[in-house]
Amino acid sequence: MAQKNETATLVLALLITLGLVGGGTVWLMRRSGAPLGGLLQPTSQKKSDSRSDLPPAVASQPGSKLQGFADVQNIPSGSFKYGGSTSWAPLRLTVDSAVQAARPEFQLRYLGPDSGSASSGSGIRMLINDRLAFAQSSRPILESEANKAEQQGKELKQIPVAIDGIAVAVNPGLNLPGLTLAQLKAIYTGQTTNWNQVGGPNLSITPYTRPTNSGGTVELFVEDVLGGQTFGPTVEFVSTTTQAIRKLAEDPGGVYFASAPEVVPQCTIKPLPLSRQGSSFIAPYQAPLVTSSQCPAQRNRLNTDGFQQGQYPLIRNLYVVIQQNGQAEEKAGEAYANFLLTEEGQNLIARAGFVRIR
To answer: Which of 54, 89, 111, 159 is the Cys-Cys partner for 81 at CB 3.0 to 4.6 Å?
Structure first.
């Protein structure tokens, strides 16, 4: 009987000790601000919550940010070809020169397609055909592109690095509070042909767009706004955004869409607020609107809050697309994405007119 009592006493003492140690640990963690959930979370759940869309050098550092280009590791040495979306042109001018200056061992060479205009699609095709180390895209990888790569025994990966939007612009003289996506669809499919049908003046509408094979902006517009329908008979095709802006400045009834950084700061056109439905219009610019008479001393700037919070109805990501082959080309694409995801890179992205993704 005495032995049983001694055993019970030892077990009770052990339980009390464990309780005190556990309670003390929780108290210390609360004092230090350490998250309890992460430690108590099952290992399998932690893995499922990881950011698989970020490159390894960033995803392996949860909650932290690399400050500058000098902090990025695993940079391959050599010359690497890249290309793709024309929406990336401002970033190529702003970011790439800074990367080259900071990391001269990492040489970048832009390569356009042999025929046709550069676009997200042309860049991804060239990547699949081993002509590029990585591609720049203004839309996600299409299922057809992923299938084509798979047929060749290849696997693509997209890394989001910036936020962009599609802005709709009109002549500065057009008096219109905004458009819903349904109204925009009706205009570009030919169902609406006069501005008085959408609350504007009695004026014929001339919709402008670049060709359907010109890049990610048009592809996304056709998919997200037109629902896959073709452009109507009233649509006029232009080769570049520069040409379209000139036409809008001269055409009182013209309308055009393009990447927001290409449209919002322009002096000779007016970006329109948009709405998914109803009259709750969200402008692609920061209010109040800077008029043509105030420009270029002042220019409209992107509505960064509306883009980051998803309030503006036509937003998208910009992606670095790589081929996962374990070779230097994959490392080059991941390194380039890591440069853009540093604090220095995100600052340069904002300076180029796009919206930070982090």
So the answer is: 111
